[in-house]
Amino acid sequence: MTIPRRHFLFLSLGAIAAPLASQIALAQDHASAPTSNSRGQPLAERLAAYAHELRYEDLDAATVERVKTLVIDTIGCGIGAWDEHPVHACREIALSATGPATVIGTNRRSTPDLAAFANGAAFRFLDFNDAYVGRFAVHPSDNIAACLAVAESEGASASELITAIVVAYEVNCRLVDALDISKRGWDPSVFGLPAVALAAGKLMKLGPVQLSHAVNIAINDHVPMAQTRVGALSDWKGIAAAEAGRNAVFAARLARAGLTGPAPIFEGQSGFFAQVSGPATVDVDAFGRRGTQFRIHKCSLKPYPAVIYTQTAVVAGIEVAKEAGSLDRIAAIDIATTSRGFQRTGSEPEKWSPKTRETADHSLPYVTARAMFDGTITNDSFAPQKFRDPAVLAFMQKIKVAEDPALTARRGGAVPTRVTATLTDGRKITREVDHAPGFAERPMSRADVEAKFRGNVGKRWPETRTDDVLRALWALDQSTSLAALLVGLTLPPGRGA
Fold first, then answer.
1. Cα angle vertex 276, ends 204, 349, to 5°?
2. Per-residue pLDDT, 412
3. Torsion over CA of 175, 178, 182 and 183, rounded to 10 degrees?
4. 291 and 315: one domain?
5. CA separation, residue 233 to residues 227, 346, 353, 355 (Å)
6. 315 phi and psi, to 5 degrees?
7. Is 462 within a domain?
8. If we measure between CA atoms, which residue out of 213, 220, 196 comes closest to residue 260?
């Protein structure tokens, strides 16, 4: 019998090398285990110690509720993207291998790294999943796919899964607070590498030394370029974070098998600080724990399926359109945004003539114009006939986008936008919005979260089936079988298995 190379490697790493390597690494861990407050130690070791030390008992009820909210929101986004071609392609690749992790929407399983990849691609593709705003914006829920895949593969408990998700969020968000990679042209998905490596490693019950090597391996060869989000955007815009998750899960498996990685990965002569972010201080002692709020509470749910920098523009644009009465009365529109918002959504000519969905949902002029025309933004707003609509394209020529340093300076999770319309009679209408509905400062209720989930699911399930799925997901912390929970998300014949 011929065993496929990937399956052979999975068996080798998971079933042959791991026991011996784990014994060696366990001895190493006992000999030199770092702690999270060892300030003189390399950052990877301090992050590893933090992940290793955090326990479910350190999480309060509000944090557990927040995890469940974000899992529901993220899975809904993935189901909403089921029919997208790039998502289908990633799913088919994952299903070409076999393993212990469910490819969500099907009753079939793949290796944990490929399941993380396929599910992560679905979760992110519509750009509808959550956002965190630090030095720039990221989607920490990108990491949930890997946590689900590894937790199922390892037979982890619900409490272990929830704790791992909190670790992934905390590491991702805190690194975004401390490190600015955008100025050197690197992609934000880079922070998913250490976040997932630690969360996956924790679910694998790795010790601190193995966890630090998982971080080292994950980062060293997989730093992504920001070209992903420049100019005319490709399918990869929605896949890059899933690829980071895949690499990080595999790195954790390698570390479990006894492989070591380049260290110190952050502080080294050719390490992350020198090559990617520049010098930085990361205070791991300040990370969330018992008595200190976790960053997961500062993450926002998106009300609209578009890049975070457009969310407040939608709200402001709709209000301006309502007051104007007729869009024909508008002679010009000036949109003021932050430095990052301008860079990512309004600084390139492609944003005034989008040719792909990915460019359209990252175009401040298109998203604002479409919202003013339709009164909202939905997944249908990015159908080709929508972003090629001659009336909208002509209206977009009235729009100018510029950075306002005062908006850039705002903090507290704000993503401010000011929309000013100059009417044909010279009168001006202005609306400025800092937080859209669903942002951390304007959180969604359970009913709001369920409404968004139902909107993403659409008619893929009967209404009663959606009710059952939501009840099961809200009870995630009480679940005794993650595998059964995920198989319960299987789509009907013709859409699922």
1. 110
2. 84
3. -150
4. no
5. 9, 13, 12, 9
6. -60, -50
7. no
8. 213
Quote the domain boundaries for residue 10: 5-298
Q: How many CB atoms lie within 10 A of CB 243?
A: 20
CA separation for the pair 86, 102 (Å, rounded)? 19
Confidence of residue 481 (pLDDT cuts 50, 70, 90): very high
Give the pLDDT mean for 110-137: 96
CA distance readout (Å), 266 to 175, 311, 439: 12, 34, 32
Q: Which of 401, 290, 220, 341 is nearest to 53 (CA)?
A: 290
Residue 417 domain-assigned? yes
One domain, residues 144 and 189 = yes
Burial 335-366 (b: 16+ CB within 10 A, else e): bbbbbbbbbbbbbeebbbbbebbbbbbbbbbb
**130 and 255 both lie in a single domain:** yes
The total of structural domains in the chain comes to 2
Lowest mean pLDDT segment, chosen from 24-38, 39-53, 94-108: 24-38
Instruction: Give the number of other Cβ atoms within 10 Å of residue 107's Cβ.
Output: 14
Percent of the chain with pLDDT over 70: 91
> What single string gives the DSSP state of each residue in 48-68?
HHHHHH--GGG--HHHHHHHH
Q: What is the 3-state secondary structure (H, E, C) of 322-375?
A: HHHCCHHHEEEEEEEECHHHHHHHCCCHHHHCCCCHHHHCCCHHHHHHHHHHHC
pLDDT tier for residue 15 given thresholds of 50, 70 and 90: very low
Pairing of strands 417-423, 428-433: antiparallel
The answer, yes or no, to whether residue 495 has pLDDT greater than 50, is yes
179 and 49 assigned to the same domain: yes
Helix %, strand %, coil % of the chain (to 5): 60, 10, 35
DSSP letters, 254-293, are HHHTT----SSTTTSTTSHIIIII-S----GGGS-BTTB-
**Spatial CA neighbour of 457 closest among 124, 107, 67, 72:** 72
The CATH number of the domain holding residue 368 is 3.30.1330.120
Q: Prior bond to 262 cis, omega within 30?
A: no
- The amino acid sitting at 229 is R
Distance, in Å, from the CA atom of 252 to the CA atom of 151, rounded to the nearest integer, reads: 13
Residue 296 carries which side chain, given as an amino acid letter? I
Could you report the per-residue pLDDT of 175-222, keeping only the tens digit for each?
999 998 988 899 999 999 999 999 999 999 999 999 999 999 999 999
The two three-digit tokens of residue 256, written as one number? 């479990």
Residue 204's contacts (CB-CB under 8 Å, 6 or more residues apart) are: 150, 154, 252, 253, 256
Amino acid at 432: E
pLDDT of 22 higher than 70: no
